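Recall that a protein's primary structure is simply its ordered list of amino acids. Everything else, from secondary elements to tertiary packing, is in principle encoded there. The following example makes that idea concrete.
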Amino acid sequence: MAPCRVALWWLLGVLVAVRVVQGSVGILLPQDCSGFLYQSRPPAGLEHPTLRYICQRLVGQPRYLTLYDPTDHIPVYSAYTFKRSDGLKRADVPWMFEPQLSSLSDTGEMQPFPQTHLHHRFKDAQAVLEDYSNAVGFERGQLNPDEHQADPNDKAATYTLTNVVPQVSEFSTGPWDQQEHRIRRRLNNYCRGPAYIVTGVTTSNLAIRHRGSARVAVPTYLWSAYCCPNFDHNAPYMERAKFPAFAAHGLNQRDGPVTELSLQAVQEFFKSVTFVDKRFQIFQDDCVPPPSPLR
């Protein structure tokens, strides 16, 4: 089937499946997206009254959770559950936006960008397509990457600008892309239950500018961590040592390295080099499962 026809049928499916859902965006954690978090608890130490939780919904279903910064016009992090995947990416999905960041929406979910210039009505609270079309040297980097999902609609839901940050092109297609592949292979091979992933950013004062105004903050670092309590205890030692949780950070520069570290080491690193709260903890109890009750 021709790509344009596939895209048309997908868009028709979105429109048919739309239903009224309220409360997908707000300062409180949406309960219908708490299942994408280990122990249903969000990362601690990143809260701020200007940030908004987005329960990323598409075709009537929650797909993942994002903590979004309407001032910097980028996500602080996206939290999702990993799905066993062959790594293939979708190429037939239009970029989308979140109507509820700017006004009430009767759909409660992301929508494709309009073909007209109506996007100026919601650009105050989120990035729009022209922000990235004028950003030479940057890619639209997904925090919840397409290749970490399997269901076509889960993959499609990653193509919203509320899940995207400006990544330096060489970093995005090089070290960070390789890290996403590495995690996909590791979890495919050795995770035996749900795998919870949180991928986020830290920023400084750098931003993509448009017509003299700072529009989209450019991350200094990207970080990512996974939590898989149920894993293959017979895996090779070098892989088994990276369970139940492990993490990585990468410097968003042309030759920026990506370093894999323990979850605790990554948390301490960001406490020392950024302004995250000293309570910063990505997973509840650092992904250490509670002890089983005595029988």
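The chain is about 20% helix and 25% strand. Residues 1-22 have pLDDT under 50 and may be disordered.
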